[in-house]
Each structure stands twice: as C-alpha cells, then as structure tokens.
Amino acid sequence: MNRLLLVAGTAVISMGLGLIVPLLVDWNDTGRFGDPAKAIALTATLFVSGGFILIGRNWRFRAHGPMPKPVRAAIAVNIVFLAFFALEFSDGILRQNGRIFYWTSILFVPALLLLYGLASGRRWAWWTARVAAALLIAWFVGFMILIPFADLRGHDGPVPWWGRVYMLAVSMTFAAVLTIAFRSLGNPEARRFFEPAR
Fold this sequence. Notes:
This protein is mainly alpha-helical. It has 7 helices and 2 strands, in the order αααααββαα.
C-alpha cells in the first residue's frame, strides 16, 4: 500500500506543478489573473497539497519490500509525462483560447493505468511500458529527422530556425527520457520485480 501512496503522491504533486507553469507564463504575459487562471491555481494547489498528504500517509504503512532502482526510473519517466500532459492541459485553457483537447489528452488515462501497473509490479505493465517506450522513441527520433526538412508552420507562418532548434531539443529530451525507461525495464532487477508470482 505504501508504495502506491508514494508514487501517487509524487505523480499528483508533479501534475500540480505542471498546471502551474502555464499559469505563471500567462500571468507574466498578461499581468492579470482571470477566472480560468483562478480555477487552474486552485486545482494546482489541491493537487500539490493532496500529493503531500498522500506522501505523508505513506509513512504510516509498512513497506512491501524495496522497489528496485530501474523500476523507480521507469516510474519517474511516467510521472514526467503525466506532468507534461497537465502542463499542456493548463496551457490550452490559459494560452490557447480555452482549448482543452490535445492529442496527448487521449494518452492521459492510459499513462495513469500504466503508472499503477508499474508501481504495483504487474507483468502487463512491464510489457506495455517496454513496447510503448520503444514506439515513442522511434516516433521522436523520426520527428527529429524530419524537423530540419519539413515545411513547418505555426500561427504566424513558417517556423523560424530557433523554433526548429527548440523542437529538436524537446524531441531529443523525450527520446532520451524514454530510452532511460526502456533500458531500465530491461534490467534483470526490474524483470524480477515484475515476475508473475508478484
């Protein structure tokens, strides 16, 4: 039980912080704090405080055994993506004219289920995380190859060179983070953690 509380608390805090980043950028750009911003601020506050409560409750339960470092690394990668999804959601509401649905929105629930599976040592989560990481690595590497040559356009016309550099850096970061998850889950210690006997 305590392992799930710790992972859930960390994930909720990270998502709360992800909600806050666009809020601060919007406040810096506009100098005002409208109703959507207040709702995001309240939600972020509830997420962060709720996460700390979950982590605090974690210490009241006895551990079910240590979680191997490679598994913790894979869980951390999953949490990074959940925080990124929260950031995109907040950015859409505050800075993209109230846009709520991104392509990442459909990945949010599967990422939460995968986080639960990884934290509880489910074999299906090991397979799913490995396959998903491999596919996403291929996706981001392929995107990195296309960025210099593709005709990329934003709201204001063609994407400038520095925009392409930014996109390359973000894609490279995600590919590297996913590679860490893929390699971590391939570690023999991680494989033992996800044995069917669990």
